[in-house]
Fold this protein.
Amino acid sequence: MLNVVPKGTGWIEVICGCMFSGKTEELIRRLRRAVIAQQSVIVFKSKIDERYESKLVVSHSEHKIEALQVATAREVEELVGDFQVIGIDEAQFIAGELVNVVRRLANRGRRVIITGLDTDFRAEPFEPIPQLMCEAEVVTKLMAVCHRCGAPAHRTQRIGAGTDLVQIGGQEQYEARCRSCYVPPDESGERTGQAGLFDSE
């Protein structure tokens, strides 16, 4: 857990984990503390993520903060202005060279706080989060509660149909699963049922 914030230098923080692990809630907590510290804060979210409200970043527990919608990393750099603290939610959905943009912002003395899925529904690295983790001064990996057995969960199980890598959804499409309960998809994207203790039904 981050106990010290930077002074006089740029800084990158990555908050990662599977779905339902509290990433956005932790982002909002840190940003609110920055506001209390009288720092200027701006928040960005992807235009494709409209699960809640278009102008708000909202956690699954319904904590919220105002945000600007962007489609690309270039838009982040263009809109950031002189803000001291920059929040980016669900960074894996933002197109373009986000790693380079974030690096430049930190090199200019900004504190950048990013959330994202470190692995996709296939349990494979979900770029650019792994690259951002390497670039960051601080990485916080959160775990959820397995929807099946209650154990600590670090994988995202897609329970809805579809094979696209990016497929926006909530509890109707995804569950958090532990290693034992996670069922890998086959090449078609369907769950094989050959791994894990439980199927999806």
In short: Residues 191-201 have pLDDT under 50 and may be disordered. The first strand starts at residue 11 and ends at 17. The chain has four helices and twelve strands. The CA atoms of residues 158 and 168 lie 11 Å apart.
